[in-house]
Design a protein that fits this description.
Layout lengths: L9 E4 L5 H11 L3 E6 L19 H6 L3 E5 L5 H12 L3 E4 L5 H4 L4 H5 L6 E6 L14 H7 L20 H24 L4 E5 H6 L5 H8 L16 E5 L5 E5 L3 H10 L3 H4 L7 H6 L1 H12 L4 H10 L4 E3 L3 H5 L2 H5 L3 E2 L6 E2 L23 H7 L4 H9 L4
Parallel strand pairs: 1-2, 1-4, 2-3, 4-5, 5-6
Antiparallel strand pairs: 7-8, 8-9, 10-11
Helix pairs in contact: 1-7
């Protein structure tokens, strides 16, 4: 049993890969009872990227943590009937099939909420449930492009780059989880659930700060800016002795002055034309060169020690190995290993009822019998379902 803040909340997760399931992961981490439905062949993420000794991916162990794993063939009428029963026994349903799929299966919002008006029905898709692109397949990479994120990455005049992650999916999962929690709060007053329509493209666009507002108000198209951020100086990546890199962000008046004094450039600290950000933006190349000359003569440790003492925000660029030995993360118990498989925790931390990893992603169909037993499907009936390939 869960002791998290969402203990007692029952969630049915339909769909595969990442966007919808990541919303389910967040809810499960916070204590919800998430029943993850997979086809009998399993979610593809089980076999993607680096695999453990059992042939299961570490990605699966992380994204399916705390979930009860059930197999159902939704292409068969019996599988859909069981999914309907599971949905009607749940508080929340999450699905990320292409728009129209759930309706064809008789599992759309109208089909279920007429029977259970309190059901919160969360839908994740590439472009949303309406509009001219609604029927297109949605993938994180395309959403990052069409949502504007890829345009502002990389260096001006060069092809955009991609973070080696599925940001479009995880951003959609985060926004879906927020929508679910908002709908549950509203349900506590009205007693009624509602449908949530979350698009990958809109989730990406939603984190682009003032990119579209700047164009609407001033006709400005924000361009890619390499390792910097447009209109804020200094905030960049600088080389250190030994080949490592450090990020320094001193984009405030007092911060800039402290940084310049720490690197021995009192002349720049006292320059009246550099006392505001617009003045620093105009002389970005000069400022970055001064910082780089100082950092490249020192190790990353020496740079950080000096700047921490000067109270200037800075930090090394860390790979997975460095993250796992980072003293701050270790002191906060960020890495969790409830069953011998290490996975990172999920923010935020609640003081009284924190989330936690109770178990990592289970084997295919590990909880099918237990979950169907809760629905009143006995052993003989389950044996028949297995014989027919439904489970």
């Amino acid at each position: 049993m869960s002791d998290g803040p969402l203990a007692g909340l029952r969630v049915l997760e339909l769909g595969q890969i990442l966007a919808g399931p990541w919303a389910g992961t967040i809810l499960a981490y916070l204590g919800a009872d998430v029943v993850k439905v997979e086809p009998p062949a399993g979610d593809p993420i089980r076999s993607w990227r680096v695999l453990d000794d059992t042939g299961t991916s570490f990605w699966w162990r992380s994204v399916a943590r705390n979930k009860r794993c059930v197999t159902l063939d939704l292409r068969q009428a019996e599988g859909r009937a069981l999914a309907e029963r599971l949905a009607l026994a749940s508080d929340v349903l999450i699905e990320n099939f292409r728009p129209g799929t759930m309706e064809r299966w008789g599992l759309g919002p109208d089909d279920l909420t007429t029977q259970k008006p309190a059901l919160v029905y969360a839908r994740v898709s590439g472009y949303g449930q309406t509009g001219p692109y609604r029927a297109r397949p949605g993938y994180a990479a395309v959403a990052e492009a069409m949502g504007g994120l890829r345009y502002v990455t990389g260096h001006l005049g060069e092809p955009p780059v991609r973070a080696n992650l599925s940001l479009g999916d995880t951003l959609a999962g985060l926004h879906t989880a927020i929508g679910i929690l908002a709908a549950l709060h509203e349900r506590s007053r009205s007693g009624r659930g509602q449908a949530i329509d979350c698009a990958l493209t809109e989730s990406v666009l939603g984190v682009l700060e003032a990119v579209t507002a700047e164009h609407a108000g001033a006709g400005v198209v924000r361009e890619p800016s390499g390792s910097t951020i447009s209109g804020i100086v200094p905030s960049n990546v600088y080389p250190c002795r030994g080949g490592r890199l450090v990020v320094v962000a001193a984009n405030g008046e007092s911060l800039f002055a402290r940084l310049m004094r720490a690197i021995g450039r009192d002349d720049l600290a006292d320059d009246p034309t550099l006392q505001s950000n617009p003045g620093r933006v105009a002389r970005q190349a000069e400022i970055d060169a001064a910082i780089a000359r100082w950092t490249e003569a020192r190790t990353v440790g020496e740079v950080i020690d000096a700047l921490v003492e000067a109270e200037v925000p800075c930090g090394p660029i860390q790979d997975a190995a460095a993250l796992r030995r980072d003293p701050q993360l270790l002191a906060r118990g960020f890495f969790e290993s409830p069953d011998g498989v290490e996975v990172p925790a999920i923010a935020p931390r609640l003081a009284r009822t924190p989330g936690r990893t109770r178990w990592t992603g289970r084997e295919l169909g590990a909880d099918t019998d237990a979950v169907l037993e809760e629905l009143g499907v006995g052993a003989e009936a389950r044996a028949g379902l297995r014989a027919r390939g439904v489970i």
